[in-house]
Amino acid sequence: MMVRNVVMILLFVTVIAPIILYTDRLGSIHTSSSSSSARDEFVEDVAAFPFNAHSGRLNLLPQELSTLKEPIGVVYSDNSTKSFPETKASTNHSHQVSARVLSTTTKEQDLSQKDNPIIQVTQTLDQGNQLLAESGAKTATSEKNTDNASQNTLDQKSTQTSIKVDQRESVKTVSVKNNHETTITDGRVRHLKDQLIRARVYLSLPAARNNPQFAREIRLRIKEVQRALGDASKDSDLPRNANDRLKAMEQTLAKGKQIQDDCAAMVKKLRAMLHSMDEQLRVHKKQTMFLTQLTAKTVPKGLHCLPLRLTTEYYSLNSSQMNFPNQERLEDPLMYHYAVFSDNVLATAVVVNSTVTHAKDPANHVFHIVTDRLNYAAMRMWFLVNPPGKATIEVQNIEEFTWLNSSYSPVLKQLGSASMIDYYFRTHRSSSDSNLKFRNPKYLSILNHLRFYLPEIFPKLNKVLFLDDDIVVRKDLTGLWSLDLKGNVNGAVETCGESFHRFDRYLNFSNPLISKNFDPHACGWAYGMNVFDLEQWKKQNVTEVYHRWQKLNHDRQLWKLGTLPPGLITFWKHTYPLDRSWHVLGLGYNPSVSQKEIDRAAVIHYNGNMKPWLEIGIPKYRSYWAKYVDYDHKYMRECNINP
């Protein structure tokens, strides 16, 4: 029995089992082929299936696929993308919406891929996937209207927003284009000038010189463009044939580009031209500076005629007619006293006239004018003929100050020294200073240094307001006398708003005498309108401080010439800062002084070379000065002085 069972098992394994396995294999092959054909048929059905047909759902798909939401589609016009960088809020909103859409669709696609057996079956079919993607893209807009109403509302808002942004962007683009077109009025002029430069470069290269025909042609084009340009500064100044000349030159330059293929030679030539232009610019700047300084030093013909005419009239007067009224007020400390040191008659007249015009009580104002011997008679004659209302005038000759001599004043001794004369009149020497502004003859005049001797000139006065002759007064100044200077000697407006108005720009801090005693970053201040407490001056012996430092600077190693550097040293820690509205500077060199500052200013100062009585004066500031000049006066007409 045992043997029989064993035989039956062996028979089953060797005969019956192979037959069963073979039969199952055939069935699997058949099933695979039928499944493949069915799958192909399914793909075709899916490709043609309408997504918006709610009546015929696919029963084989799981139910959660019926909740698949359509991605939020925000429709933008062609130009709407241009507005993204300028409309941050719209951009951020779009980014948030798109991120939410991507996350939603990704999650749902992942779920559908995991749970849907049909999608799993069709994943390996590239063609089927492409058809599904194209079908979904084409029908996204139609499904949007029926599946999700809230998403549709959001889409409409986004679309409206994008349209509004497009409209704003288009308006802005048009305005920018219009502004661009209106501002660039010399485009063709620049183009023609650039063509001339390129043509000269080609003409100077060996390849062009070796081609006589091209050389003749480009020379002809250069002459034509030069004639077309002329003195034109904008396109409207160009002749009608300018466009033809431009096109012809462009064609010739194109030929030159074909002839000249050596870029290294072109670059070398352009560098040489650039170096030459830099050198010419440097020379022209130096010439401009020299001519500006020369113009500033030169007295216009009319201003030279005026003192001569006044001097002649003065010496024709009787002795009784040469005196000013109200001389008893000259030493009254209760009056408002002004000190003006000048040899310019017309400039001094403007200072006096503008001050009196704005004074609340002109009878209490006294003007002390000190001039040199040449202009003494002219200055007196002007104010005798043109008295400043009820104000008091005194005109003095500096030659009458017998106490002011070289033994007392170090600066007077230095101004008459041989080294100083050599410094001014032998400018060709290599050892001379290269900065031309230090060669102004005003530095040779003791009038410029007389401001350091106010207690000696006015021994009986307590306070004096010092005024330069290149200022114009625009408000009443009597409030300066009531200011408490806190024990300081000098009341002045500080000028440290700019870095070049600090001590290190005026003094030589490489010298130990300067570096040990002063701060290079200390704030400078301005001469031109300064209130001086003469009592404190005498108490602190300020004049002696000035003398000591002038002696130390006999070789000009501590500072160059001028009165501001020694003023900074002399009144170091003795200066009280005034409000900036009292004194506005820069009208003699800076065309960008704020109009608001000028309107608020009590005094405007034409410091610099562009004085208002010179032709180089800044035109927009000249009217503030000219309004106090009577151009209809007899002497003004005789000397041909016009506004």
Characterise this structure:
It is a single chain. With 643 residues, this protein is an alpha/beta fold. Strand 1, helix 13 and strand 2 form a beta-alpha-beta unit. The chain has 24 helices and nine strands. The longest helix has 46 residues. The strands form two sheets. Strands 3-2-1-4-7-6-8 form a seven-stranded mixed beta sheet. A two-stranded antiparallel ribbon has the order 5-9. 52% of the residues lie in helices and 7% in strands.
Features:
643 residues; alpha/beta; seven-stranded mixed β-sheet; 24 helices
Strand order of the largest sheet: 3-2-1-4-7-6-8
> What value does the Rg take, in angstroms?
47 Å
β-sheet strand percentage: 5-15%
The number of distinct helices, counting runs of at least 4 residues, comes to: 24
Low-confidence stretches: 30-35, 46-126, 135-154, 428-434
Distance between the termini: 149 Å
What is the count of β-strands?
A: 9
Largest sheet: 7 strands, mixed
Identify the overall geometry.
elongated
Please give the share of residues in helix.
40-55%
Mean pLDDT over the full residue set: 77
Could you say which structural class the secondary elements and strand pairing correspond to?
Answer: alpha/beta
Oligomer: single chain
